[in-house]
Structure of Acetyl-coenzyme A synthetase:
Amino acid sequence: MSENVYPVSPEWAARAWLDEAKYKEMYKRSIDDPNGFWGEMGQRLDWIKPYTKVKNTSYDPHDVRIRWYEDGSLNVCYNCVDRHLPTRADQNAIIWEGDDPTEDEQITYRQLHERVCKFANVLKANGVKKGDRVTIYLPMIPEAAYAMLACARIGAIHSVVFGGFSPDSLMNRIADADSKFVITSDEGVRGGRTIPLKKNTDDAITAGNLSDMKVLVVRRTGGAVDMVPGRDLWLHEELVKVSADCPIEEMNAEDPLFILYTSGSTGQPKGVVHTSGGYLLFAGLTHQYIFDYHDGDIYWCTADVGWVTGHSYIIYGPLSNGATTLMFEGVPNYPTASRFWHVVDKWQVNIFYTAPTAIRALMGAGDDFVNRTDRSSLRLLGSVGEPINPEAWIWYYRVVGNSRCPIVDTWWQTETGGILISPLPGAMALKPGSATLPFFGVQPALVDEHGNELEGAVNGNLIIKDSWPGQMRTVFRDHDRFVQTYFSTYKGNYFTGDGARRDEDGYWWITGRVDDVLNVSGHRMGTAEVESALVAHPKVSEAAVVGYPHAIKGQGIYCYVTLNAGEAVTDELKAELVKHVRAEIGPIASPDLIQFSGGLPKTRSGKIMRRILRKIAEDDFSNLGDTSTLADPLVVEDLIGNRQNRKVTG
C-alpha cells in the first residue's frame, strides 16, 4: 500500500471545473435528490422531445429495470456533430494519427458532419434501417468514427468488434447480434504489420454459414482482397452515389445505441446493451469533469474503438462536448518506445489517457525514451483498464508528467458505460494506486460473501447500491442472463465482480476481479498487491500472479515475472524476489513458485489472460479455452514448457 499523498496544487484548484467543496455539494445532491440532480444534468443534451420523467430503476431480482429520461427523444449523432456547427464548424473534431508517423489527418466538425451524413446515406441506400444491427470491424481509422456516428444518425444499432479479434470471435458476434451488415476494411495496420480484416470477415461469414449478408469495405492499404459480387461493396464507390444531406432519426432515450460484447466468466460473450439518452449524458459529463476538459484542449485517449473506452472516451463523450479528440492507429513502441511522447509533442496534447499495461511496458524500456521528448503541453494524465500499481503510477507521474500533472486513475467497466470511481483533479488529493472517490450518483459499498454490508476501512466485494444513467440496460436478447450475472449474487444491488478496499480516508482501492483474490492459509490478498510488490523491484518489468492448489496452504502463490531488458535469470534473483515480496507485504505473501518469462499471454488490447496463467500454474493446460484473441500465441508454448508446477510421475 502506498502512503504517498499528492495534494491538489493551488493552480489546479483555481482552474478546474470543480474544487473539493463543489464536489461534495454536487455528490450529496446526486445521492439525496437523484431526480432533481439528473434532471438538471440532462439539460446538457439537445432533446427533440424534452423528458418529464428522469429515473425509473429497480434492482429487485424479480423486476430489474433501468430507465432514464424514458419519455424524452433525441439523436446521438446530432448531439455529437450537428449542434456544434454554429459555433465550431472549423474546429478540429478528430485528429487522426496513423501507424506510420508520416500519415495523419485533421477533420473539422464541418467535415465530420458531411462525411457522417454521406456514410449514413450509403447505409440507407443498402437497406439499413432503424433498429438493424450493423457490425463494425475496422482498424483505428476515421471511418470507424464515421460508421458509428452514421449508425446513430439513422437509428441503427452498432456492434463494434475489435480489429484484433479472430474470424471465429467475429462470427459469434455477428450471429448473436443477428447482424446482416458488416463494415470492414481491406487490411488494418499496426506496428508496421498488416492485419487481413477483409479475409477474416470472409472467413467468419463462411464459417458461420451466414446468409443475406452485405459487406462494406473501406480501402485502407490497397492490398488485394476478394470481393464477392452482390454481397461486397467498396465504400469509395458507394460514396459517389449519395448526397451529403441526411436527416436525423428521432430516437427514444431508451432506444439502443450500441451492443458491445464482453467476456463472461462462463459461456458465450455477453452483448452489453447501452441506450441513447442516459449513456450519452453520462459519457459527456464524466469526460468534462474527470478530465477537466476545457474548450481548446487537445485530448487523447489511446484506446481502440473496439473497447468501451474507445466508445465513451474517444467518440461519444468528447464529441458530445465539442472536444478535439485524437485517434491513434498505432502502438506505443512503434517505430520506437518514444512514439506516444512524439505524438504528444506533435499535436500539443494536453490530456492523455492510457492503460497501466502500456505504462509498465514503457517504464521497462527505460526513461530515456521519455526524456528525449518535450511533453510540456501535458496537463493531465489518466489510467484505465485495470488497477495501476503504485510504482507505475509514480513513474508515470514523475517521468512522463514531470511531477506536475495529476493522474486520474479511473475505475469502470463495459457494463457501466462511463467512469464510476475516479479522482477529480481540482478536488481531491491523490494516492498512487487508488481510484479515489465515486462520481456523482454512484453509491459503492463493500459486502462480505454473505451480502452483509461492511463499514469503515475494510476489504470486501464491490457492489453499487443504485443506478446511474450510463448503466447497461440488459444483455442483448437475454435479460435473464443480465439479472443472473449482476443482480442475483447480492440481491437488490449491482455486483461488479470486483473486490475492493476502502481505506481510513474513505478512498477506494480496486483489488481486482474477485477470482483474482488469493486465499493463502486463510488470509485473503489481492493478486494486484503481490504484483505491485514484484514490479517495485528494480529488475522487474512486469508480473502476473495467480493462485494454485497447495497441499498445506490451500492456495499457493505462483508468480510469472518478466525482467527488464538485459537482466539475467538466476537462482539468486529468484531468492531476492521472494525476500523482496516478504519485505513489502509480509511473510504470508511469500511467492511459492516464480517462473521467469519473456512475455505474458495478452489480448491484442493488452489485457493479461489470467485464466491461461491459472491453468498453467495448476499444471492443467489440456483445455485453455478460446485463445484466438492472443497477441502472440507462442508465449503460451514457452510458459507451458517452463512451468514450475509439474506433477512428478513415477
Notes: DSSP finds 21 helices and 31 strands in the chain. The chain has a mean pLDDT of 94. The chain has three domains: 10-75+254-512, 119-249, 521-641. The longest helix spans residues 109-125.
